[in-house]
# Entry
Amino acid sequence: MGRRRSGRNIDGVVLLDKPTDISSNDALQKVRRFFNANKAGHTGALDPLATGMLPVCLGEATKFSQFLLDSDKRYRVIARLGQRTDTSDSHGEIISERDITFTAQQLEEALEHFRGNTLQVPSMYSALKHQGRPLYEYARKGITVERETRPITVYELQFIRWDNNELELEIHCSKGTYIRTIIDDLGEMLGCGAHVTYLRRVQVANYPYDRMVTLEQLAALRAKVDAGEGSFESLLDSLLLPMDTAVVHFPAVNITEETAAYFKQGQPVRGDVKDLVEGDMIRVTCGSEQRFIGIALISEDGRIAPKRLVVENEPSA
# Structure
């Protein structure tokens, strides 16, 4: 028999305000333990240096975390000008120091270069895999691996301030964009070098900034639960956002409970799919409560073909 997971069957998304100097996986495990959840996953790692929004999916919500990985992100970043490091951030070793000689006009022209659709070569100090191992493992051994350019989109690049050797920007970008690489490339374009000293993710998809919670807040609530001053449901679970918030950008189709019984068995079903075409991804809900039961693709014959299903567990004690 397989080892049974311990913990509660709790489903939803918690927006963690990740602190600095901790890995995303360590932060994820702390959240899982605070909620006593049987399963958890995050939706795109932040560097240890970085802080900010890290959506953590619990339970069945982990099935839909991929769609948050694919979503747009927004960051606030501060760069140190005049110094280039091997990791493109302040955790690395300084590899060159140069004078800052560019003008405000040259800065604006350089920033414009990064707006819109561009190609980016990922940093060697990234978690991208090469032959099954992350690039940063090769980099730490002094090995450089050839990386292919990747298309990215910077929807918005706002200049915030330039104060001596500090430059602050806000960047709204597509998935897979490395802010450290933008800063490193910008520093080279300006002729002085640059690296990231502060990075904060302020938005993932359309999740609200004010719904973020810190590890300290979660620890305090868990301490109350352990002291018998309240329940998980009353103190912690109210912080969770519904699991379908990860796929809220897909159109919703509601089906009857009777039809849902077949859908949950993996069978394509009929539903009201007007204005939808073959290949469209949809959110599927059922019944008068419009309960979320999974995502599906519209098939060639206009039926709703299950893609990922929610397993509706009985709540754990």
